[in-house]
């Protein structure tokens, strides 16, 4: 299968689109529904984190999602364009301001989106560079999944 | 699917039935609903997520925020959930130790 590349504007409504594409790809590759659920959650978390990062940092560039299925499994990466330096944590912890619009502050107050991705992907690499951060997720091929 | 919220009173408890997807896009509506209930003096909350199809960390964050608010009024916030795929994210994040999670609304209410 040739890779699929999505370029989504940093709008929370677009995160669902990325989830739907990832779910469709996972199902087309024959993954069982519990794995499809993991893919849905991981992509939702990664894209949600990236979109909130863009909104928080005033980054106009799109979030890029790349999806590929091959003999080595399913590989999905989500890349933001927030120019973080190497010392910046992936998630910036924030307090609850009490402002109903301040979702990011509350959502990530105790729950680390990257930790959730790591909990449901078979493998996760977090690569931080001068141009942004990539969360690269991978799931083992269907054939090698345990019974 | 979008998010739908339906609140009803059951004695001193307010039961919020949530359906659809709770994510970075829809979670603000759930948050506003919880803030409104607390502002109205409803501090015993039961959130039924049996018809929720997707829940992410922003949704969990809103639930944690709701719990903080009601606890500041000596209230409670319990979850009704039997879906494995939702329970998994509560387990991954360690929130099974933070929330009371019950199979039914009646079980949540009678636990107090």
Structure description:
The complex is a heterodimer of chains A (147) and B (112). Chain A is 37% helix and 24% strand. Chain A is of the alpha+beta class. Chain A has a single domain, classed as Heat Shock Protein 90 (2-Layer Sandwich), CATH 3.30.565. Chain A has a five-stranded antiparallel beta sheet, with helices on one face. In chain A, helix 1 (12-28) runs antiparallel to helix 2 (33-57) and helix 2 runs antiparallel to helix 4 (113-120). Chain B is an alpha/beta fold. Chain B has helices spanning 27-39, 57-71, 84-92, 105-110; strands at residues 4-10, 13-22, 44-55, 76-80, 100-102. Chain B has a five-stranded mixed beta sheet with strand order 1-2-3-4-5. Chain B is globular and about 30 Å long. The termini of chain B are far apart. The chains are: A alpha+beta (147), B alpha/beta (112).
* CATH homology superfamily name of chain B: STAS domain
CATH topology of chain B: Transcription Regulator spoIIAA
Question: What class, by secondary structure content of chain A?
Answer: alpha+beta
Annotated CATH topology of chain A:
Heat Shock Protein 90
Task: Give a concise summary.
With 147 residues, chain A is an alpha+beta fold. Chain A has a single domain, classed as Heat Shock Protein 90. In chain A, strands 1-2-3-5-4 form a 5-stranded antiparallel sheet, covered by helices on one side.
């Amino acid at each position: 299968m040739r890779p699929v590349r999505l370029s989504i504007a940093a709008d929370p409504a677009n995160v669902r689109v990325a989830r739907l594409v990832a779910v469709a790809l996972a199902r087309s590759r024959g993954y069982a529904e519990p794995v499809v659920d993991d893919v849905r959650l991981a992509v939702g978390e990664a894209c949600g984190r990236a979109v909130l990062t863009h909104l928080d940092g005033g980054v106009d560039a799109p979030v890029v999602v790349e999806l590929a299925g091959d003999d080595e499994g399913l590989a999905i990466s989500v890349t933001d364009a927030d120019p973080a330096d190497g010392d910046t944590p992936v998630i910036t912890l924030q307090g609850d301001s009490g402002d109903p619009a301040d979702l990011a502050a509350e959502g990530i107050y105790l729950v680390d989106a990257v930790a959730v991705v790591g909990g449901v992907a078979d493998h996760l690499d977090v690569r931080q560079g001068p141009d942004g951060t990539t969360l690269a997720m991978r799931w083992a091929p269907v054939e090698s999944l345990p019974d | 699917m979008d998010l739908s919220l339906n609140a009803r009173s059951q004695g001193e408890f307010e039961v919020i039935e949530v359906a659809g997807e709770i994510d970075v896009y829809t979670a603000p509506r759930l948050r506003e609903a919880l803030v409104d209930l607390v502002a109205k003096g409803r501090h015993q909350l039961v959130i039924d997520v049996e018809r929720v199809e997707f829940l992410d960390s922003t949704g969990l964050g809103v639930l944690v925020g709701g719990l903080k608010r009601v606890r500041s009024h000596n209230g409670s916030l319990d979850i009704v959930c039997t879906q494995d795929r939702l329970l998994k994210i509560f387990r991954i994040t360690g929130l099974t130790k933070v929330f009371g999670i019950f199979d039914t609304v009646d079980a949540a209410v009678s636990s107090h």
